[in-house]
Amino acid sequence: MAGPLTVPGTRAATAPLKVAVIGGGPGGLYAAVLLKRLDPRREITVFERNAPDDTFGFGVVLSDETLGGIEHADPTVHAALQGEFVRWDDIDIVHRGRTLTSGGHGFAALGRRRLLEILHERCESLGVRLRFRTQAPSAAELAAGHDLVIAADGVNSRTREAHADIFRPTVTTERCRYIWLAADFAFDAFRFEIAETEHGVMQLHGYPYAPGASTVIVEMREEVWRAAGFDTLDEGQSTERCAKIFADALGGRALRANQSPWTAFRTVVNEHWSHGNTVLIGDAAHTAHFSIGSGTKLAVEDALALAACVDEQPDLPAALAAYESERRPVVASTQRAAAASLRWFEELATYTDQPARQFAFGLLTRSRRVTHDNLRLRDAAFTGAVEEDFGCPPGTPPMFTPLRLRGLTLRNRVVVSPMDMYVADDGMPGDFHLVHLGARALGGAGLVMTEMVCVSPEGRITPGCTGLWTDEQGAAWRRVTDFVHNGAPTEGGSPGAAIGIQLGHSGRKGSTRLMWEGMDQPLPDANWPLSAASALPYLPGVGQVPRALDRAGLDAIREQFASAARRAADAGFDLLELHCAHGYLLSGFLSPLTNTRTDAYGGDLTGRLRFPLEVFDAVREWWPADRPMTVRTSATDWAEGGTTAEEAVEIARAFVAHGADAIDVSTGQVVSDERPEFGRSYQTPYADRIRNTLGVPVIAVGAISSWDDVNSLLLAGRADLCALARPHLYDPHWTLHAAADQGYSGPGAPWPPPYRAGSRTPPTGRTDGPKPRLTLS
Known about the structure:
This protein is an alpha/beta fold.
């Protein structure tokens, strides 16, 4: 290892002078360029096992953001790239023979081979040693003789695998097969086209990368690929077959391959990116699905960040730590967007029956990075046409269109999500609940939901939970519903806020402390006995072991739900939701992780559904026929062996068949060792799948925080209602403020007359100066 030295123009550092780069792709080459530029004394060697003109794939798309970073770091490379780019703005989406075009997107692409040539030339001009047709020594060997080893050896990284105990990779093979091809003509837009074949849905992704050439990717689910016989075809036969399937898109032209096997995309995640003086970049460290065009982008940005951190930090360990700290959140965000995009394409068959413009809007917003508002800025005409198809009155954002469920008309699509408050006294709602729910009704939401209201004292989560097991509690709830209905004055005949009740039983998650005293922790004393589907504690070794319900217990709880439903109807609630999620009693019957029964109420999904459906039927019998019922479910347990995506759809199907008017699709909280994939709108894909598979209304939940997200989810057909929790804690008037931000004032978000003066943003202190009137020289 090199000793301490002072690099001219930088702080004193233990600077790596001898650098080995494993892999001659864009990331590795660009890292070599930047490190050599920053310190010409460095001896940098790039090992590439292929010839200099060997490359796989065809075109590369780079964003303006990435190009800006390249321009700042190396104007020479940037200038060379600028002279090669093909640029375009439009995306064409072909849906059942109809082409819909959305403009204003801005793409820049060039051939991958030309990109590598530019980087080869730059490396040679700077004195970087390029060793082609050379298998690099192992990272361990190189680390012994170099100050820094950069492993840019791709998705099949030997370095990563050799040190898997340190990097701790997770590699997930996705469900589609794809082949990377090219056509000898240039598409005039980014083109997405589907082919609905006898074997299933196939899709084409195409874009130009040179004046006379386009990348063409053909993708389909694994089972479609096999049914179509592609698993028996060689490269040439596959290429010819794809050209025939997408003959219209190609204008009858041929496709060509370049060592183009059918591949299943693999998502790579590593717990650590460095080991000693070896660091992973690009696909060796992380991958993101090609449908958001991110592979080369991420690799180049990794190289930029790594070179900068090496230059800025006092020693190599600090540099590698800073590199990972800087890049990890960016990569995680990109991987979340890529995962949403690839899931959309994996589930493509569920969207093909959507109206053409809605299908196109869903495709454009699939990653959740392009939103309704963003798309409107890019192409107002296209977005306006989608809004018109959705049924938006002129000047009305999607979120402020009404929705009818049975005899209930909601003034808008915003729901205040159920949120446990833990401030009741012996199950009795009090002034806090009146103010809490009343304030959010005044705040403009279409539907305000109570917290989980428990059907018995033993069904409470904590001593502070509300209930509906007595008539006195029913009378207290009536005070709340009366205020929501009559205490929020409106004008012009627009409907006021509706209020819904969520009925539930804690099951094995009961008899715990208030949330802020220790969530899920048992009470220190005065515990009550718990009952559940099976005798399994929620927190093994900590929580109380529940009693597995026998016939008498099942009957008693079913009647408790029915009695609570009768009281809820008398109390004036507009909607009733049955809580079958989050590991509470009914959810505990549905999940195979919490239901180990061997009687008629366990086993396969039919058995696990039996008791929740019996409860639903008992509640529906008492609940007025003109008032809607919804069911909240956990569509995944976020744990191995839990509820599958297919089972989540079947659970929803069963409740709808029994009379549910909508499914409130949540996830998780079923087992304590869950591993949720948190992120913006992270639960909405589950609602999307249920809605577009079954054609039933759904309520989407889960980190939906902006009105732009709400509009986007609705227009794309991913949800019919959006439930928001924390935003309504932060701002009880969230819905009215969303209307004001969008310049909307209509029946979907009426300001109560006493509050109307607040419908405009209050003025703040003046920050602008007087405009100059004269310029004197």
